[in-house]
Specification:
The protein is built from 10 helices and 7 strands. It is an alpha/beta fold and 306 residues long. Strands 2-1-3-7-6 form a 5-stranded mixed β-sheet, covered by helices on one side. The protein has a two-stranded antiparallel ribbon with strand order 4-5.
Length: 306
């Protein structure tokens, strides 16, 4: 899947910054620590309770971010070539889809999230974070944070395909957490933080569904001020790339790789199969109501809504 080459990238849509610094110590060290961190923080949720433990109390301050899309990101052709440009144009596509569909389907106004690209470490409204936490959304400052080096980690360490829609799924999932914030659902995970049918799992699966909802419209809805959509028509391979990324970060797959066993009672994000099914529920229907994981009687069956 590719962007239409003539799409114009907004030079002010994201902030860029951060840097390696010292980064402090990571309490959950080594490769196993990375898996636990991804399990806890990858693809959203509120990281405020864990960021201090991840980065360590004696970390140096991260460089401040500044407004501005990277200078080499100008068109859809750049987004097809460079991963940071892909994040920016995916964000613009998400703005277009949610700016239309959220008020139409829910009567809730869409306020775009802030998006920050960083390298190494960054200061956030939820605390200081290093790249070890993976991409995440901070409800406190309504900002999604991405170190694009993670997308290669997704392939190398978690076995995802490296296709563009696999990366765009991650961006769309984080913005899905912003949609939950706008709709007042973000706090529901805290009431029931882990387990196979917990509020946390339901929140994450709903963000997967919202990512699929974006994909439903992204190759059809014209970009603002034009007649072409942001994306060229999605192929079966594109969808398989997104499904590969969703499966790669399922709780069961990560637990099996880390410990050799699966413990559903400690799940926070859902199984690989559940993540794929809810992604497809959003993609096939394009409907917010089809993503109501909190009303689902069976998370293995997205159609099982009360």
């Amino acid at each position: 899947m590719t962007f239409n080459e003539g799409m114009q990238i907004d030079p002010n849509r994201v902030s860029s910054g951060g840097g390696p610094g010292r980064g402090g110590k990571i309490a959950l060290g080594g490769a196993g620590g990375l898996i636990v961190l991804v399990l806890a923080l990858l693809l959203g949720g509120d990281p405020s309770s864990l960021l201090h433990d991840i980065t360590g109390a004696q970390s140096t301050a991260a460089p401040k971010t500044a407004p501005g899309t990277p200078a080499h990101c100008r068109t859809g052709a750049d987004a097809n070539r460079y991963v940071d440009c892909r994040v920016v144009l995916t964000t613009q596509s998400l703005d277009a889809v949610w700016g239309t569909e959220l008020p139409r389907q829910t009567r809730t106004a869409y306020t775009p999230p802030q998006v920050t690209l960083f390298t190494g470490a960054v200061s956030t409204g939820c605390g200081r974070a290093t790249s070890a936490v993976g991409p995440f959304y901070c409800p406190a400052d309504r900002t999604a944070y991405f170190d694009t080096a993670f997308f290669q980690e997704l392939v190398d360490k978690f076995g995802s395909s490296g296709g563009p829609l696999a990366q765009e799924y991650v961006v769309a999932h984080e913005v899905g957490h912003h949609i939950q914030n706008l709709l007042g659902d973000s706090g529901r995970a805290q009431r029931d933080p882990k387990g196979p049918a917990s509020g946390s799992v339901r929140l994450e699966l709903q963000a997967d569904c919202y990512a699929g909802l974006w994909a439903h419209y992204a190759d059809k809805l014209p970009a603002p001020g034009g007649s072409q959509p942001f994306l060229k028509p999605l192929s079966d391979k594109d969808i398989q790339d997104a499904l590969s990324a969703a499966a790669a970060v399922g709780d069961d797959r990560i637990q099996q790789a880390a410990t050799g066993r699966v413990n559903p009672e400690s799940w926070t994000h859902g199984s690989s199969a559940e993540r794929q099914k809810w992604l497809m529920a959003g993609y096939r229907t394009g409907q917010v109501r089809a993503c109501d994981t909190f009303s689902a009687t069976d998370l293995n069956n997205p159609a099982a809504l009360r």
